[in-house]
Structure formats: C-alpha cells, structure tokens
Amino acid sequence: MKTSGRLNDGVCSRCGGRTFILIEVETYGNGLKHVRYLNKCRVCGNLSTIEELMIRRNDSGLAIYVKK
Ligand SMILES: [Zn+2]
Fold first, then answer.
1. What pLDDT does 2 receive?
2. How far is the CA of 62 from the centre of ligand 1 (A)?
3. What is the spatial order of strands in the sheet that 61-66 belongs to?
4. CA distance 16 to 61
5. Residue 68 belongs to what H/E stretch?
6. Tens of pLDDT along 7-42?
7. Which of 44, 49, 50, 59 could be 37's S-S partner, Cβ–Cβ 3.0 to 4.6 Å?
C-alpha cells in the first residue's frame, strides 16, 4: 500500500515535530461526501494529506472513490 509509511511515521516533514491524524468531512447536498485524512503537526501546524476519498450514497448503497 502506498500510504502505509506516511500513516505511521507521525513526524512532521517540515520541522520534525509530532503529528496527529485529522479527519475532515465535507458534505455536499446531493449525498456526496468528501473525506480527507491529514497529518497535522502539533508544533508548526503543517498539514499533509494522507488520503482523500469521495463517498456517494445512491440507491444501491455507497460508492467510494479514492482520489489519490
Ligand atoms: Zn512541523
């Protein structure tokens, strides 16, 4: 998996500080959700994206699209 290394290191690429995982969810009106998994540095606030997903709810259930 391409993201496993970045998920677990927990260290800011800019300053070396400790990071935590932030999950942002944006909901659009038509049943579409945009979910972003981010690493955020506790020291300098640097954000790096781990993964982005688009989730669409439709008649047959959920469809998930991975953006990167
Ligand atoms: Zn940092």
1. 46
2. 36
3. 19-27, 32-41, 47-58, 61-66
4. 41
5. none
6. 456 899 899 999 999 999 999 988 899 999 999 999
7. 50
Q: Phi then psi for 45, rounded to 5 degrees?
A: 80, 5
pTM: 0.70
- For residues 19 and 39, the answer to whether their CB atoms sit within 8 Å is yes
- Number of domains the chain is built from: 1
- Please tell me the distance from the alpha carbon of residue 28 to that of residue 63, in angstroms, as a whole number: 15
- What residues flank ion ligand 1 with Cβ within 5 A? 12, 14-15, 17, 41, 43-44, 46
Q: Percent of the chain having pLDDT more than 70?
A: 85
Cα(28)–Cα(56) distance, integer angstroms: 10
